[in-house]
Amino acid sequence: MKEVRYNIDLKETTKSGKFLRIALGIICLIATVWFLFSIMGTAASITTAWIAIGFLFLFSLWLIGSGLGITDRYITVGDDMIKLKLNFMKPPVVFTVSSLIHVEFRSLSIKFRTSAGKVTLRLGTFYPGHSASIMKAVEEFCVSNGIKITGLESEDKNLQS
């Protein structure tokens, strides 16, 4: 089984969409710098103007980060590990064969249990089109590596644990 990456964001990302987000982020950043220098030291330099500049600056950083893929949420299923990134501010969680105790399948979520605790992937709240393929890939990973599976039974009789 080769390593497969599934997007769990609310949107699909294409190269043109990434380019447009980066371009709009750069335009917003340029506008922020222009507004910053144009209101500095004038009567328009009030608290609400500075709040607007701050918001425009953060929005431009978010757009550029989104275009570069920094804010992406994903799950990668490979032969010997599962990599799960749920939050853009935290590094991805890596589950190896030796670290997983068992995996629990529910109707729209997967709970990964390790000795350190549990991590829940809520599939219905993200991109619902990938839910079945993600569950099947995780189930195949567990079966091929001998990891205990609890919860829902597979419709594919070859993958039952």
Would you write up a description of this structure?
The chain is of the alpha+beta class and 161 residues long. It folds into 2 domains: 9-68; 74-159, PH-domain like. The protein has 3 helices and 8 strands. A hairpin with a 7-residue loop joins strand 3 and strand 4 (93-96). 16% of the residues are buried. The model is unreliable at 157-161 (pLDDT under 50).
Can you summarize this structure?
The protein is of the alpha+beta class and 161 residues long.
Question: Any descriptors?
Answer:
single chain, 161 residues, alpha+beta, PH-domain like, 2 domains, four-stranded antiparallel beta sheet, four-stranded mixed beta sheet, 3 helices, 39% helix, elongated
